[in-house]
Protein 1
Amino acid sequence: MASSSSTVARTRQANSALHPDDAMALRAAALSAWAKRNARIIIGLSALAVLVVGGLVVWAYLKGQREAQAAEQLMGLRQNPAVATAAGSRELEGFIQQYDGTTEADEARLMLAQLRLDAGNPRAAVTELTRLAGSGSSLAPQAGMMLGSAHAQAGDRPAAIRAYEQAAEKSGLRYQRFEALGQAALQHEVGGNYAGAVEIYRRLLADAEPNSEQRTIVEMRMTEALARVGAR
């Protein structure tokens, strides 16, 4: 009797189990019902997604257009001999304001700073270069080198050394680091701080490749600086 009851129970369970296709149909029906209940939310989210994606596409297009215009105008400025005049400097300033935030504007800042250095006005060049040297621009190391030169020309040796060392820190290229730190060491020597120069030369040697020309030059300069330290 018990065996017969168990057989009946198993038969009922087997009959009551849903076929996979039926289970899928039930889930689809439940999803459809949920979608009907939340139609406004779905429509709102879909519209928001379209707006976001569309906005990104428009932003990318406008950004590309602005950069293309900046590149074209900067090329024209480079080819214009009048850019070296006072009127040309004002044109560069206007270009920087119009296309601020682009690589081309940063290039124009370097051009303007060089014009001011060539005109014997290093303090005006410092104003342009300080912001660029401290930024995340790919041109920051180059601006730092020029900033060091501007400070040196203005007679501010400590500021020149700081600018050169900052340029070395920002540079991802070995030759740029060597050039920046080498200039910082020279500024120490010009100021009579040969011990400070030796410290930088030791840093350069630690980063120099064995048997390289750079290493030979640094070793020679460090030997000369050490001799001057010992002579004091």
Protein 2
Amino acid sequence: MGGYDLLFCEMPLPETTLGPETIFCTRAFDGVFNDLYRVTADGRLFGPVEPVLTYPSRPGEPAHHVAATDCPTDGPPLAWNGDIEFWSEQDSQVVFFACFVEGRCVRILP
């Protein structure tokens, strides 16, 4: 199936109880996969950051041990126009589409 990037979304998500600590996956960005991106509560997009990934040592452990804070927000946001499709790492049936205009997320749809 190929690789993907990781994304944290701090904006409210429609029709779900998933919170800002949820790890999402996306293939929206060009380049090498396994980068980390972050959508802040006010809709700004930050990244890419190469996360330090650890993998489970036992069955049932999470696939990645990363946090939204691993993607800092002290630099300029990513100037992105268009949609980003992302899905829950735990359940690929939970899919969202975030629409960005001039680097700011204007809406998220299920």
Protein 3
Amino acid sequence: MQPILMLAIVGVAAVALGTGFLNNNIELWIQEFGVGSGNIETPVDHITIDFRIVQQEIATTGIFENVIDACLFTLDSDVGDSAVANPQTELTCKLTGHDENWVSDGLIIAEGTICANSFPTSGNPYVIPMGINDCGTNLGPTSVDVRAVGDVIAVVQANTYSAGEHPCPPGQILEFPNDPESCIEA
């Protein structure tokens, strides 16, 4: 009787695990890194990444599939300077594929970018549609099959220089990023 009870418990556990549960919150903690004798400061320390998953009909078969059509970024701090109009601050979500062992292959299969002067911390997520770059270019597919995604890459590019101000005079840029003395005409 005891082996049958154990088998029943294992069976119930297998059924419970087999039904699945999709928890698509990804907590991402960012670490600063150094270049030469200085540190490159990140615009944010923490991002919560969610996905908007919708059902989409496959036109040839009439079957529905789950696809990701947007990433949602919730920031822990303000990003960008609202007084700086050019360049704009960018939030980019890149979805990569995977190999036959479900290891991310690093190849981007879909991405989206939104741009603004700044992204204040509001507690509400910023929606980044796939295939869209509201900074001016089309980035490819507007949705991707959930099963094709192996990893997500978050890119946050603030419109402020990481040291607080740009070392070059207006109209000039750095020729060598690690050398603040290498200003040249833009």
Protein 4
Amino acid sequence: MTGAGAGIEADPEALGRRAAQPDADPERILLVVRRIEDGALLLARWPDAPQPMLLSLDAPDPDEGFADGVARFLRSRFAVTARTPRLHTERLPVRMRHPVKGSEATGFLRVAAVEVSGEPSPDGALAGIAALTPDEAARVLSTDLEHRALALGLELLP
């Protein structure tokens, strides 16, 4: 691979297969979503959160596939059409609930970047969608983890 994502892009189907194993470390995907039409990054606004944030999702089922799972998720949350997502190789350690065991465990967030098209419209659970430049997004994200995730996602985008 050459260009954006060279050497940093992971195999998303391997993530899905690994996540489906009952003894696997829990992993979630943080999405860096960029609209093709204007280059704006799309962040979720939740009713109970003061700042916009990156969307997250469980690893898509291996039977659905990574690209189809991310596309379905973004269609349902933002009403946009997704291009092929790219998954970063770096895993960010966090405390999270284990999906099978139910207990707290060290899990990982994986960053995926995806370009989308269409006029975004939030689903009923969201308070809105913020369309921001990369610099604006970096200013509004509230944690070091989100800042790192944003940087990793931007590395993957062309």
